[in-house]
Specification:
The structure is a homodimer. Chain A is α/β, with parallel strands linked by helices. The first copy, chain A, is built from ten helices and 25 strands.
């Protein structure tokens, strides 16, 4: 990487991804004599920690998203492009977007995040959607709300029970947060609105392959979280390995659980762009970055956030949480700047900001190293931290008011089922009009 | 229609549609000894008068929608089903839903509303979406916001100009409201966020086939509205007949306007369900109802709202506005009740609540018969009326706060592009990687 280019034009910095790592990298470079192009396939930065609240209809999608170009509007050295990055050529130093257009760079920061991993069962994705993007959250919200609508419409008690059974696979923070929200919504908010089903019969089953929930937390907080979940009515099953997911059921070996709504909170896989870098990746497809956040052999290419596998201490890896993405993105940009100025680079010293997970409406577990709390105190901490870090004043106010509303009334503000058509049943064949369908012939979603 | 059935069971009332007419009909029957089933293809009641604000990213979809079953939750005689009504058999008195299941009724209130009409050019729909449902509004929002994203990404000035050209077809209230919002958003809110295009160059062209905009208003208010639109920067063209819409352009005879975003505010067509009634329809497919809101030959079947063509006075028809739908829906339910009680029926006496249309951020025209105002005064009236009629306390507060925010900052709170994938360009053919695409090769949306 050269401090300035031979022609005297400013360094071209390309940042791929407008998540936590990408945004903070751009902001770190706001006064630098560089030309930044930030590329994201969406138009928005997403506050991922609250995604499960969109999925459960507490918050509206626009509450936790802000247009990336709005966040960076006053930063004159930055152009934002909404485009799909398709490949990186580290030798020619170009990123290919859309239908083959090339964006050249002098330095690159790769921060395209992760998707879920289905451990070789990609065919499960359409039956058990994961929760990474705002589209994912809207998809889950649709399925979650449609399940109750279909239960109400069904004439078959067994089918109704299957519609009122929600299976969450994976008891990490996302799985625990999703599972914890559902029982109260079903019992309190929805009960008076249904006539043909008793929504208090809703079952929520949380399946975890490991020996305990929230594996990244200390053991006693895992135990507490499990107790709290069970108090809410969630059936927690550890050492439970899903062997098959099919329309209408989840299999654990020989055991079949009837359900029409399966949510996936299990695995992570880095954005497939890492594969075009030609450097070693870990099992989740993440780049094994150097301590300065650059990739081996290419000091001008950095990786940060969920695409990067960085060593923390004692062979522990930096976890895939928002504060870690922030620290990595900032360091990548700082090291880029230091090289521009002819200074040496810094190495990552990850500061653990702690681990938080909410359980239902007013419980949480929090692990801040020395301070480890559970229950309502942890929940208030969670509330405070999330409002604090939520980008944008308007979003903060809107989220706070919706929380107060939801908390006070048990009602969900954003219970909109949109774009339901593709989930609905097809029109009947023109023949046989007038013959009533057999009970329970409602097809599950495709 | 018999007051009670021969078996002594309560009358079964089926209401099709949860819009203004359907909801008020259900509420009018809340204490009646009947069993109501309200069927809607969506789960929500929609406050249609504010739909254009979702389309232009001011309000979030959940701000103007409320789950129908939530609105009717305390009404124990009512079951809400989310289902598609496919046919009505008035002789056998059954409604067919979904894949052939039949719902029998003793009385029926048809209130399934209208879609847009493309006057025989149904192929225009995918190029020029109309604005009736929340899905329509989200579709328009996506196209509207993506046009700016594509302009920023394009390398071809002509293509950029085409992306920054918005054509609105039809200058009724919807067309005027859509067109009036765009210039200010482009000039004020978006300008600082774009680097490659000057969003102040955005063109908004409003095409109307008739001799003036807002044809249902008095002539001097039409003139005032046109002047206000032109002050905002909208190019208003009356007596302009669209002859062809194709990807990338709209044709007026020999004249071709390059644009990638065409919005349709022109025609209405009643829900196709009216065709299965076997009674005379008007040109827009609406049922020619009797003065008591029932259909000819079937006193037990009523039609209300945008599916009904009712005579007002002097051969004028009741207009397709929310207050009219409310009055028709209430009268249909009242007459149903009166017959149950053995009383005679009332006939429709439509009370005109006036006509309102906003133009941009702080102008409107209002026609209340004797009182006809324009400008800021009319805008305050509009604001007051819409907040007043918006269903649900939470929605009211949320909408009010978003308006204050948008008004104070010119910023749009809900500028989320979701589900963009199907509008994006396809991945490149695997060959020829590395050859830059020619400028302006970005394909318009399908």
């Amino acid at each position: 990487m050269t401090p300035t280019t031979s022609t005297g034009r400013p360094q071209r910095v390309v940042i791929l991804g407008g998540g936590f790592a990408g945004i903070i990298a751009a902001r770190t470079l706001r006064n630098a004599p560089v030309e930044i192009t930030l590329i994201d396939r969406t138009n928005h930065h997403l506050f991922q920690p609250l995604l499960y609240q969109v999925a459960t209809a507490v918050l509206a999608p626009s509450d936790i998203t802000s247009p990336i170009r709005h966040l960076l509007r006053s930063q004159q050295n930055t152009t934002v492009l909404m485009a799909e990055a398709r490949a990186i050529d580290v030798d020619r130093r170009v990123v290919t977007i859309d239908e083959g257009r090339e964006i050249p760079y002098d330095s690159l920061i790769l921060a395209t995040g992760a998707r879920h991993s289905y451990f070789g069962h990609d065919e499960w994705e359409r039956l058990a959607p994961g929760l990474k993007s705002i589209d994912d959250a809207q998809d889950i919200r649709r399925r979650f709300l449609l399940a109750f609508e279909r239960a109400e419409k069904s004439l078959d008690p067994e089918e109704q029970a299957a519609y009122l059974t929600f299976v969450v696979i994976g008891a990490g923070p996302t799985g625990v947060e999703l599972a914890g929200m559902i029982p109260e919504i079903a019992r309190e908010g929805m009960r008076p609105e249904f006539r043909n089903v008793d929504t208090r019969r809703t079952r929520v089953i949380l399946l975890e392959g490991a020996t305990r929930v929230l594996l990244t937390f200390p053991e006693h907080l895992s135990e507490r979280a499990q107790r709290d979940l069970e108090t809410l009515g969630v059936e927690v099953r550890t050492k439970a390995l899903v062997t098959k997911i099919e329309p209408g059921a989840v299999w654990l070996g020989e055991e079949r659980i009837r359900t029409h709504t399966v949510l996936w909170g299990a695995g992570n896989a880095a954005s497939p762009l890492t594969r075009s870098l030609g450097v070693p990746l870990d099992r989740a497809g993440r780049v094994l970055v150097q301590p300065d956040m650059s990739i081996p052999g290419h000091p001008e290419v950095f990786a940060a956030g969920d695409v990067a596998a960085a060593v923390w201490k004692d062979n522990l890896m930096v976890p895939g949480v928002a504060p870690a993405a922030n620290q990595m993105g900032r360091l990548a940009a700082e090291n880029l700047l230091r090289t521009l100025r002819g200074e040496g680079r810094k190495t990552l010293r990850y500061t653990d900001k702690g681990n938080l997970a909410t359980i239902g409406r007013n419980r949480a577990v929090a692990d801040f190293g020395k301070l480890r709390v559970a229950g309502r105190m942890a929940w208030f901490l969670w509330l405070f931290v999330h409002i604090l870090y939520l980008v944008g004043f308007r979003n903060r106010m809107s989220v706070l008011s919706q929380w107060i509303y939801a908390f006070a009334t048990y009602r969900r503000a954003a219970r909109l089922i949109d774009n339901a058509e593709r989930y609905m049943t097809p029109p009947p064949a023109p023949a046989a009009a007038g013959s009533p369908a057999p009970p329970g012939s409602g097809r599950p979603e495709p």
